[in-house]
Amino acid sequence: MNLPKVIADLVAAQNNFDSAAYVKCFSDNAVVKDEGRTHNGKEEIEAWIADSNERYRATIKPAGYEEHETESILKAETSWNFPGSPIVLNYHLVITDGLIQSLKFTV
After folding, report:
1. If 0-12 CB within 10 Å is exposed, 13-18 middle and 19+ buried, where does residue 103 land?
2. Between the CA atoms of 41, 92, 57 and 36, what dihedral angle is there, to the nearest 10 degrees?
3. Of these four, 11, 26, 37, 67, which has the most CB atoms within 10 Å of its CB?
4. pLDDT digits (tens, 9 = 90+) for 7-26
5. How much is the pTM?
6. pLDDT (tens digit, 9 = 90+) per residue, 64-85?
7. Helix (H) or strand (E) holding 50
8. In this structure, what is the dihedral angle of CA atoms 48, 77, 8, 27, given to the nearest 10 degrees?
């Protein structure tokens, strides 16, 4: 699957549990929405992904990718140490100038 560089980098960072590399994929004022919470800016995003990596140890395997006018959607089989794993999550991304501006997850 041919993914944009920033998404391929995000997948690699997630699968290596590398929160510093993960946050480099985001713009300074990016927003992540996950589990009913909003994380604003790189500092909050890095704290969120570091905590998530420690708690869940989630890995992702891309299963599909679509680009739309205002967002891109990465479908990924997501496995972690949680009941019901693995599941396919939709990663809704807005990308500008090669960096993620926003990310939210849906089932």
Report:
1. buried
2. 70
3. 26
4. 999 999 999 999 999 999 99
5. 0.95
6. 999 999 999 999 999 999 888 9
7. helix 41-56
8. -30
Which is it for strands 26-34 and 99-106: parallel, antiparallel or unpaired? parallel
What is the layout of strands, in order, in the sheet containing 99-106? 37-40, 26-34, 99-106, 87-96, 72-79, 59-67
**CA 31 distance to own-chain centroid:** 11
Residue type, 98: G
If one counts every other C-beta atom within 10 angstroms of the C-beta of residue 95, the result is 19
Token pair 């993620």: residue = 100
Answer whether 88's CB lies under 8 Å from 39's CB: no
